[in-house]
Amino acid sequence: MAHISLRQVVIEFPIVNGSSRSLQLRLYEVLGGKLSARHSTVIVRALDGVDLELNDGDRLGIIGHNGSGKTTLLRVMAGVYQPRPGSATVKGSVSSFTDITLGMDPESSGWDNIIFRCIFMGLNFGEAKRLSPAIAEFSELGSYLDLPMRSYSTGMNLRLAFAISTSIEPDILIMDEMISTGDLQFIEKAKQRLHEIIGKANILALASHDLQMVKSICNKVLWLEHGVIKKIGPPDAVVEAYEGSATPQA
Amino acid sequence: MWPSIKRVQFAGVTELLDGARHWRVWHLLGIQELRHRYARSRLGQLWLVVSAAIMVGAISLAWSALSNQPMAELAPYIGAGFVIWTYFSQVISDCTMIFITHGNFYRNQKMAFSVSIYALIYKNTIVFAHSLIIVVALILFFGVPVNWYDFQIIPALLLTWITMLWAGYVIAMICVRYRDLIQLINSWLLVLFITSPVLWKPDLLPAHNRFIVDYNPIAQFMELLRNPLLGEQVAASTWLTAAAIAFGGALLACLLIGRYRDRVIFWT
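Predict the joint structure of the above. Result:
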């Protein structure tokens, strides 16, 4: 059983720069100085009163322009950002694919990195070891796995990261754009694998600009604009409204 | 806006303890940094011992020449002191940057920030353990007494770790918010080095200047770790002070941590 419940979620980023960050200014301020006029922290409101309820079986697509708050929303669901004000309750294990190389180390071999990445995703050493052969096989890196990862090409790097990250099955899967990687043949294989774990996950949240894919995978679409939910509902209706708004009003 | 003290305290305690659960992660993070430092070097991790030997050797030679004191008396004292000082100062200086360097990690995965603090204490403790080989060599070479007092090192280390955990978290948290403190703290480390009994003995201080040691937590913790190594008893007052700092500080720190924990991610 997985469940995500967001209520009136507001996320604000303080854009702290040198002057407002400096302790000196803060001290002057406390001491009653007049410098506070220069002390103006710019605040960016990335999400503004987002309500969302996701249950088992929900496949949520998040669409919207750059800077509309898609990634921030994903990170709220992953538990990274705590809303203030508002509340976010997330039940179930979460796998976040916002950075699939987290925990990997270029100085170490591919084999070691399989273990590292698995540990970062919350497995123990025994489980990581057991998964290693299957991950190695899927990555198709063969004897390269004995070499340090810094000798890999970007594509190989991603292939390994993908193979590891998709080898565990979370309750809640969070993705910022579909990961696509490698050469043509690998892309096919990766797609299949991705659809498999998406199928097994209780809840999927996917932010994407690829509207066709969102329509094909998701059963619910959320359109964000300036941190506010513009529209939420069945994929076809929301995507159509979004596309309609994108055409220039000439 | 201000949640109840009890809830804040609880959040702080949870935050600190939660990191311990992820020991596998901080074990990897700690080892990884050491591995990077010595990757592709011929001596590898042996450098941990060699560089400690060079530092301790050079300093005790120079200092015994300058102060005209016999090496046999000076070398073990300075050796132990210097190794402990390096341990403390490295932990402090690592803390100032840790949430910034690990920022990407926390932005992409929910985890207690204390994992970073555990990782850096762990890493520096490994370095410390390697440098202790030099201290042991000095002790054996110069015939420093080895006795039951040596075992005081176990509770002494425990108190040190507790203090490092909460103090490290607080330093890291304040530094990520007020970036000027990173520079300030790192330049104050030199002042701390001079005002702490690393190269000199506290009994050399004139009575009216004793406060330099009495009110200097670094000095207290240095005694706490050094006396056992040199086979001397740790004074009851030192035990008390250290325990008060470790546990009292932890209580206060948990309030601060519980209050601001959720903001840290926005400051990284």
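Residues 13-267 of chain B form one domain.
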